[in-house]
Amino acid sequence: MTTQISIRRATSQDAQTVADIYLAARKQLLPYARLAHSDDSVRGWIADIVIPKMHTTVAEVDGVIVGFCSTIVRDFSWIENLYLAPEQIGKGIGGLLLAEALTRLARPVRLYTFQENSLARHFYEKHGFVALEFEDGSGNEEGTPDVLYGLPASSTN
């Protein structure tokens, strides 16, 4: 059986599923980084901010949403969120979401991840991102040490 993976722009109808993926990934894969908001607050944030005010794409496997990526442009191009359903990690879906985002974003591109998140750190480094600054967590809601990554302006990824 052939698996069909597609990437498309998220719609308001996707908010519930996107929130479910975010919450599952945060709770299962990042237990050391407490959620700073209730599940209901996260659901509102996804529905009111992430989908309508950021450029958010979803990855579908055989028509089922299994991950999402949201980006925004401020002082730099930023990858704000890239999350997969935990059981989908390691299948190339995150790479497809990242590649799609990078086709739209001007360089340099920035993102944060937690220092303890070795899976994400390896993933981003494999895709050309370099650690720019290690921080103590005082600048994020979770109070968890993080690392600022950047994709240099000259990167071909």
- Return the CATH architecture of the domain at 5-110: 3-Layer(aba) Sandwich
Secondary-structure content class: alpha+beta
- CATH level-1 class of the domain at 5-110: Alpha Beta
Q: Order of SSEs, N→C? A: EHHEEEHEHEE
CATH superfamily of the domain at 5-110: Gcn5-related N-acetyltransferase (GNAT)
Mean of pLDDT: 95
Describe this structure in words.
Helices cover 32% and strands 31% of the residues. It is of the alpha+beta class. It has a domain at 5-110: 3-Layer(aba) Sandwich (Aminopeptidase). It starts with a strand and ends in a 6-residue tail after the last strand.
Outline:
With 157 residues, this protein is of the alpha+beta class. It has a domain at 5-110: Aminopeptidase, CATH 3.40.630. The protein is built from 4 helices and 7 strands, in the order βααβββαβαββ.
List strands and helices in order, with pairings.
Layout: E1 5-9, H1 15-29, H2 39-53, E2 55-61, E3 64-73, E4 77-84, H3 93-104, E5 109-114, H4 118-126, E6 130-135, E7 146-151
Parallel strand pairs: 4-5
Antiparallel strand pairs: 1-2, 2-3, 3-4, 5-7, 6-7
Helix pairs in contact: 1-2
